[in-house]
Design brief:
This protein is α+β, with helices and mostly antiparallel strands. Helices cover 47% and strands 15% of the residues. It is built from 7 helices and 4 strands; from the N terminus they run E-E-H-E-E-H-H-H-H-H-H. The protein has a 4-stranded antiparallel β-sheet. A hairpin with a 2-residue loop joins strand 1 and strand 2. The protein is globular and about 50 Å long. The two termini are 15 Å apart.
Length: 172
Amino acid sequence: MAFHDEMRGANCFIGDETVLLRVYEHDSSVSHVLPDLAPTISTDNQIVVGANWYATGSPRKLAELARFVGAEPPVHRLALSSPSPLDPRDEALGLCSSYVTSVVRAVVFEPSTVPALTKDSEDAYPGLVGVAQAVGQRLRDERTTESEFDSEVTLQAGTIRSYCNDIYGGQR
């Protein structure tokens, strides 16, 4: 949810091995998120990149995934090209989605921090607390754990993105 594009994600825990999978609607989105991932990629936490997706985690499990989908084998270093710049509206939508998601996380796991996190935000983000409370309540109803949060909040992406679209006017 930290990026403006539609994304679905899953955190897969297979014994003591983990694979995080993220799939975007648009191919160009991957090049925008990879630079933030670069510091986390290592020999123990590798990456496989597809046209509109990436997966990070266990080298062994990623090798299986790469073979299954016909992708390049996992790597422990990213060769990054410069992504095309986001237009100002897409950048604003990304920031909004990221902020709303952080407030939702607070609603679910640290409700006492919500007032401080949202203080003075009503002018820029009218109705933020209501949206975050509604999404947070759905995640609490599902008994979402911290390790499940990233994948579960993506199921609420439509609500968050719709809210941000309403603030910045128009459709994507």
